[in-house]
Design a protein that fits this description.
The structure holds two protein chains of two kinds.
Chain A: H1 4-27, E1 45-46, H2 48-51, E2 53-60, H3 62-83, E3 90-94, E4 98-103, H4 106-119, E5 124-125, E6 129-131, E7 134-140, H5 143-168, E8 174-178, E9 182-188, H6 193-201, E10 206-210, E11 229-237, E12 244-252, E13 257-258, E14 262-270, E15 275-282, H7 284-296, E16 302-306, E17 309-312, E18 324-327, H8 333-345, E19 352-360, H9 362-416, E20 419-420, H10 422-451, H11 456-488, H12 491-523
Parallel strand pairs in A: 1-20, 11-17
Antiparallel strand pairs in A: 2-9, 2-19, 3-4, 4-7, 5-7, 6-7, 8-9, 10-13, 10-16, 11-12, 14-15, 15-18, 16-17
Helix pairs in contact in A: 1-9, 1-12, 3-5, 5-6, 5-8, 9-10, 9-12, 10-11, 10-12, 11-12
Chain B: H1 15-38, H2 45-48, E1 50-57, H3 63-72, E2 75-82, E3 87-95, H4 102-113, E4 119-127, H5 129-157, H6 160-183, H7 190-202, H8 204-219, H9 226-258, H10 261-300
Antiparallel strand pairs in B: 1-3, 1-4, 2-3
Helix pairs in contact in B: 1-6, 1-10, 5-6, 5-7, 6-7, 6-8, 6-10, 7-10, 8-9, 8-10, 9-10
Classes of the chains: A alpha+beta, B alpha+beta.
């Protein structure tokens, strides 16, 4: 016997051992304690379509982040000019790339220009323009700066969403950036998808604004209120009927305190009304601001606004020092706890829009696994019966190669940490049929050679040899399309491509080397008179 | 055991009939592609954007009642019933409700209109139009890239004529799969495209087997004419063409019958593709090369 088979057998046994080693965590729910350590721990990852869960693709509205940044500059500028006693008509954002200051006379223009250059060196100062007797000074945000802000906003949104999900408590979430402004979130095995989506997608911009007590909200409209006011609504939900009523408020547009200044938010239960509320703590700057504002506005109402909806607008009874406050409103305990989470995790730098949402219930996932297993089992039985019937003992050898192929493939999936999806299972079932193909090609060739009167050993050798190129070709063409599928596919399709490509590569090995070993073993001496094929 | 004994079928001689059949299939396939491009075919929401839900009810639910209830609430839907387990597949194309609210709206309609029949949401998918657009472009790109890859490989392994014939046979399979799905009004979605690309790669196996044998026989330098050599080659490898396809067909059939509703259409596409693949390697790819080679021969003579 030649040296060949020895190392081939070693290789097969080694691969078999490795595959089973990597498959052990998947096959046995409980591993013995001595298994810990360097031995593989991971089960085969199941895709969301198999274990249930949600797959979200969100688009961060990055333009809003840029506009927000410009709004802050405009307000900041307003404060600075006020503090320096510079007279100006307005300071506001124009479009989505500039901030304009409108002044009354040329004299102040010089001073303001100097101020702008000093304070915002990274913005481009445009030449002053006269508009109907006023002087308008504009600063433009460069394309690159704008890009920076966008980029940072996506990064920040990603961090915030990760924080929220961590606090919500989901095992093995995937949170990743995709492309320039997309964020992909995968939450496997989640029970209440709606609540999770609500929690992730909420911008959660918390603002404190004073109510304009001089205006009557019931008659106010966008045209009749002063420019520095705005109308926002408080939503009241009737706990028994579930109907929603909207109560209008006229607020001062200026935001006095934002959610950035919070250090903590916790759910508490009001002992008097048995109603949940959210207790918030400010940092030192927030506490000082809160103290000053409440001291100066006793008797007025202070509105707590989240994402442009008023939660409550309590009257300031007295100066509040110490930096704590509470947000009450008509919400359930779950809603209160989610509100606390988003306040703790911070606001998203820009609103996000859900562009894709795939939710799979856990029952469907389990159902798919079961049916996939049955289909696979039936496929194996059919192919095994056919091959045994048609090629007899040689068919059995091909079947052995096929089973080896499937075990190696599963082992490889586990070892590489690849994700198994339903189309991935379909690929494995398909491979059951495809993996015996190579052996069919070989066997048919062997039969042909036998008809030419060759000895079994010679027929077998030339069968393997002559079929080799054909087998190579057919594998490469399938691999080409599988690679393309892998490149462009997402989620389930990628799972299909992974299983298929791995299976095809492994199949080359099992059909050319795996089955050959057995034949060589039995026909090795070359004395065999007959071959069962 | 042998299913196919030594055969001597004149495959090349039947090229007139087979070319006509293939031309008809290809035309239907092209019509299907045009309809797909126009958005007139039964497209999956992964390409068009929209919402789909799979609901499992406690009791059977008449499809007409469900459709009427949804329409009453301003939702134009296409429904599909899965008999096993009282399941309903609901696809909402365009609705006057913003994306993200459609699924909830559908659920609310069923809660309101069928209060005595509880249900669970087995799956729901919402896809924005921008994603659909991107996916359509990506898919087209993927199909073109795989075709080019296959042509280059076959052209390199054999020669240009074989490469082109193999590519035409592959395209033929793709058209035929689209034609069948279009005529059956099955959904064209990402999984279908996956099946098409898989078959595009797999059906080449049979073509390669036949081509290999043709090339081997051409090298033997006999005095036979092209059609005779081609016919003999096809007949010689006919049994393996059929058996390799058969084993894969067995696996695909078990997927079709036992794999469950999610994978059902995908398996159907595979079954169709495998059958068409056998036909095309025998009746399309080889005759094409034969015709081309004979022309070259008579031209040289």
């Amino acid at each position: 016997m030649s040296k060949g088979p020895a190392w081939r057998i070693c290789l097969i046994v080694a691969f078999l051992f490795l595959s089973l080693l990597y498959l052990t965590p998947t096959l046995f729910a409980k591993l013995p304690s001595w298994w810990q350590g360097i031995l593989p721990q991971d089960k085969i990852h199941l895709g969301l379509d198999l274990q249930g869960g949600i797959h979200l693709v969100m688009e961060v509205e990055t333009l809003k982040a840029v506009e927000g940044a410009l709004d802050i500059i405009a307000t900041d500028l307003e404060d600075t000019m006020n503090s320096k006693n510079i007279r100006f008509r307005s300071s506001s954002r124009v479009g989505s790339d500039r901030v304009a200051v409108v002044l009354y006379d040329r004299g102040t223009s010089e001073t303001v220009q100097k101020l702008l250059k000093e304070k915002y060196p990274r913005m481009e100062l445009l030449p002053a323009a006269e508009e109907g007797g006023f002087i308008s000074l504009s600063m433009r945000l460069s394309e690159q700066e704008s890009q920076n802000i966008r980029d940072k906003s996506v990064q920040q949104a990603l961090e915030t969403i990760r924080n929220r999900i961590d606090q919500f408590g989901v095992s093995e979430p995937v949170i990743a950036r995709e492309g320039t402004d997309h964020i992909v979130v995968q939450l496997p095995g989640i029970k209440d998808p709606k609540r999770a989506i609500e929690l992730i997608g909420k911008t959660a911009r918390l603002e404190f604004k004073l109510v304009d007590e001089n205006m009557n909200p019931s008659v106010a409209s966008a045209g009749t209120i002063p420019e520095e006011d705005e109308i926002l609504y408080e939503k009241k939900v009737d706990p028994t009927t579930g109907s929603v009523t909207e109560i209008p408020y006229v607020l001062k547009r200026k935001t006095l305190i934002t959610g950035d200044l919070l250090t903590d938010a916790q759910v508490r239960i009001d002992s008097q009304f048995n109603q949940p509320y959210v207790a918030i703590e400010f940092n030192s700057l927030g506490a000082r601001l809160f103290d000053q504002i409440t001291a100066a506005n006793v008797g007025k109402r202070f509105a707590i606004v989240l994402d442009n909806t008023i939660y409550s607008a309590p009257v300031i009874r007295e100066r509040i020092s110490g930096g704590s406050a509470q947000i009450s409103g008509s919400f359930t305990e779950k809603e209160a706890s989610d509100l606390a989470i988003v306040l703790r995790a911070g606001a998203l730098p820009a609103p996000v829009k859900i562009v894709q949402n795939v939710t799979v219930g856990p029952s469907l996932g389990q159902d798919s696994i079961n049916k996939g297993l049955i289909a696979g089992l039936v496929g194996v039985i059919l192919v095994v019966l056919f091959m045994t019937f048609y090629y007899r003992l040689s068919g059995l050898v091909a079947n052995f190669g096929m089973v080896l192929n499937i075990i190696f493939l599963m082992g490889a999936l586990a070892a590489l940490g690849a994700t198994l999806t339903l189309p991935g299972i379909a690929a494995i079932v398909l491979l059951i049929g495809m993996s015996v193909d190579s052996n069919v090609l070989i066997f048919e060739r062997v039969r042909e050679e036998l008809r030419l009167g060759k000895t079994p050993k010679a027929a077998l050798d030339s069968g393997y040899e002559k079929a080799f190129l054909t087998i190579m070709d057919s594998h490469v063409t399938t691999l080409i399309t599988a690679a393309v599928l892998f490149q462009f596919g997402t989620g389930p399709v990628k799972g299909f491509a992974v299983s298929l490509s791995l299976g095809i590569i492994i199949n080359l090995f099992t059909s050319l080397i795996g089955t050959k070993v057995i034949f060589d073993y039995f026909l090795g001496t070359g004395r065999a008179k007959r071959i069962s094929i | 055991m042998q299913i196919i004994k030594k055969t001597n079928i004149d495959f090349i001689g039947k090229k007139k009939i087979s070319f006509i059949i293939s031309a008809v299939v290809a035309v239907i396939g092209i019509v299907g592609i045009i309809q797909i491009a126009r958005g007139a075919a039964n497209m999956g929401i992964d390409f068009t954007g929209g919402t789909s839900l799979q609901l499992k009810f406690d009791k059977p639910i008449p499809m007409e009642d469900a459709r009427r209830a949804l329409l009453k609430n301003g939702l134009e839907t296409s429904l599909q019933e899965i008999k096993e387990g009282n399941k309903l597949l609901i696809k909402v194309g365009k609705a006057n409700v913003p994306l993200g609210k459609v699924a909830t709206t559908v659920e609310d309609v069923f809660k309101k209109e069928f209060p005595g029949n509880a249900f669970v949401v087995e799956s729901s998918t919402e896809i924005g139009p921008a994603i659909g657009d991107k996916l359509r472009k990506d898919t087209l790109f993927a199909i073109v890239v795989s075709m080019i890859g296959i042509i280059i490989y076959i052209a390199w392994r054999f020669d240009f004529k074989f490469g082109v014939a193999a590519a035409i046979a592959t395209l033929h399979d793709v058209f035929a799969m689209i034609a069948v799905f279009y005529l059956l009004h099955r959904e064209i979605n990402l999984l279908f495209i996956t099946a098409v690309l898989t078959i595009a790669g797999y059906s080449l196996t049979d073509t390669v087997v036949v081509f290999d044998r043709i090339r081997e026989n051409l090298r033997k330098q006999t005095k036979e004419t092209m059609p005779v050599i081609f016919n003999r080659s096809i007949n010689e490898v006919l049994s393996r063409t059929i058996i390799t396809a058969l084993t894969t067909l067995l696996a695909s059939l078990s997927l079709l019958f036992f794999g469950g509703e999610v994978i059902h259409d995908f398996a159907l596409a595979l079954v169709v593709g495998i059958l068409v693949g056998i036909y095309s390697s025998v009746f399309v790819a080889s005759p094409l090369v034969a015709v081309w080679e004979s022309r070259g021969q008579s031209g040289n003579a």
